[in-house]
Amino acid sequence: MSGSLVAFYALSALTVAGALLTVTRRNPLIGALWLIATFFALAGLYALLEAHFLAAIQILVYAGAIMVLFVFVIMMLDRPELEEIGLLRAPGTKLVGLAAVGVLAWRLAAAVGRAGDPAPAKEGFGTVRAIGNLLLHEYIFPFEAVSIVLLVAVVGAVVIARLTSSES
Q1: What is the rounded average pLDDT of the residues 11-23?
Q2: Predicted pLDDT of residue 117
Q3: DSSP per-residue letters across the chain
Q4: Is the pLDDT at 75 greater than 80, yes or no?
Q5: For residue range 26-56, what is the model confidence (pLDDT) as tens digits?
Q6: Dihedral sign, CA of 161, 151, 38, 109?
Q7: Is-contact 73 154, C-beta < 8 A?
Q8: Which of 128, 154, 136, 152 has its CA nearest to residue 66?
Q9: Cα(108)–Cα(111) distance, rounded to whole angstroms?
Q10: pTM for the full model?
Q11: Quick one: pLDDT at residue 123?
């Protein structure tokens, strides 16, 4: 096995494990820290694909700026943990979660079974010009929609935090 294949499997395992730990932690701050680890592993995968600009942006924008925003909102809301609210005690919650993990494992096994030798990357893949053309020409609407969704989420968190603090 080559070193790049070992690095790919290690980073892939870290990405999947970090994502699972992100959604299974009861403390949202710990989940956010696992999300940062997931973002770093994903940046490593981008670097293996020789998309170094994407890897740098993944670390700067997502693991840096967006996660600072998430952690700020989590700490500002200071909500009780899920178990205190009672969401994990619903009768079908564990059954739905188990079914989702089963479907994920089945899809992952099917994808690994179909995997072959990766196709070589196109000329200019991952460059600033290629990403700029994609974001500002082909995918401008989704790009702007995501920024609006993030803005609405932050404004909503601030409103909820103010309502919660005024009730106390």
Answers
A1: 93
A2: 65
A3: --HHHHHHHHHHHHHHHHHHHHHH-SSHHHHHHHHHHHHHHHHHHHHHTT-HHHHHHIIIIIIIIIHHHHHHHHHHH-PPPHHHHTGGGSTTHHHHHHHHHHHHHHHHHHHHHH--SPPPPPTTTT-HHHHHHIIIIISHHHHHHHHHHHHHHHHHHHHHHHHHHHH-
A4: no
A5: 888 888 889 999 999 999 999 998 888 888 8
A6: positive
A7: yes
A8: 154
A9: 5
A10: 0.60
A11: 81
Q: Which two tokens stand for residue 59?
A: 């670390």
Cβ-Cβ contacts under 8 Å for 161 (sequence gap 6 or more): 76, 77, 78
* Six token digits for residue 58: 């993944």
Six-digit token string for 25: 């932690």
Report residue 163 as tokens: 């309502």
